[in-house]
Hints:
Blueprint: H1 3-9, H2 41-48, H3 51-54, E1 93-98, E2 107-108, E3 116-117, H4 119-131, E4 134-139, E5 146-148, E6 160-162, H5 164-167, E7 173-174, E8 178-180, H6 184-187, E9 188-190, E10 201-208, E11 211-212, E12 226-228, E13 243-244, E14 249-250, E15 258-259, H7 266-274, E16 280-284, H8 287-292, H9 299-307, E17 312-319, E18 323-327, E19 331-333, H10 338-349, H11 353-362
Parallel strand pairs: 1-4, 1-7, 12-15, 12-16
Antiparallel strand pairs: 2-3, 5-6, 7-19, 8-18, 9-19, 10-11, 10-16, 10-17, 13-14
Amino acid sequence: MVPFLAALVLGAPASGHRQLASYPVWCNSYTCWASTCATSPACMAIDDGTHCESWCNAYTCDNAVCTGCSVCGGSDFGTPGPTPTIPGVAAGKVVLGISPDYPPYTSFTSTVPPQLGGFQADFMALMKPTCGIDVTPFLGTWSNCWTSKPASLYFPETTEYIGDYIREGIVHGCSGYTHAKGERNWSLEFTSSILGGLKTAAILTRLVNGKPVVSPRQSDFSNVRVGDVSGWAPTPDTFGYNINYCTGEHISAPSDVSSAQAGDGNVAGINALLNGEFDALYLYSDQLYNFGNLANPSPEEQALLAGFGSTFAYIQTGLDQWSINGTTLAISKKGSGLKEALDPCIQKVVRTQEYTTMCEHYFNPGSCVQNEFSTGSVQSYFYDAKMNERTDSYTCSDGYCTCDELP
């Protein structure tokens, strides 16, 4: 792909404080001088200063805005900052909380005794030999890191908040989180992504006699009971950033996107949908696919899989306007300095043979950050496709409704 075409088709999501508006199809990083291109993905990324980590790539290094980025041989993140200190941890060491129940990202190893493992932990292990930063995974739960907001945080604009591990300095940060738009950015900072591309979101609904309770063509959710998987991305406040690709319309969010009364996690959220607490559930596009590929799914996960395609199904997949960046190595307390300490090393790790070998062990080669050692081209999973661009043959009975399967 020639640089100009690459610049045209490769873009970054909008930053957390703006939404994409319409712009001419010819807009790209070379045409940002035109006022009509100001809201195009590439121009917004350059304006917000996020182009190095989310837009620039090997095909765009001839563009002046990318010449200082690490992917083009520069040092976009500069010299590593000092490692923040926390009680009980030696200076220069970094401790990251990890919940080992989200394979392939996080898991227990099959060794005896088991260790904390998965893609996130294996990436941490590459940090020390690559650039001398000692990063250690620390057992915790997702809610120890990010969870439902406490009652004392009375602002109606907030729905979730930092968990006790980060808030109280038990760990430097936590691993495996997506850099979403919205409220996460009020209290967290994020390192660079350690995978290529963005994670997409989706909407589930119940099926009654094989038909969805909520239509795939529903864009106005103002009167729909919408639920969120508490403690996980996508966060409730990002629901309205998305576009219904069946209709091309922006999704109108209800005044309140609620969390399951049973607590955090995907099982609690999906059960709340099935029990009628919600009529639609906002979650990751890959969640049910991941459940189906677990080596040892829990009884609760097995029960949900048994009903997938008969009692509930996706009515939207491929929602891609809710995030700023993909899966990161670490979240931490905003202002902690952990991002400045880790990002230069992350950029070195993702350019190594060791990273590529490790990443491609867990994921399709195209899902990894691409470098000279990559063995495959960038590919998309079927659940990441926009609804109007799907080429799969799945229907509601398979768990993935089409745009034309209506209530």
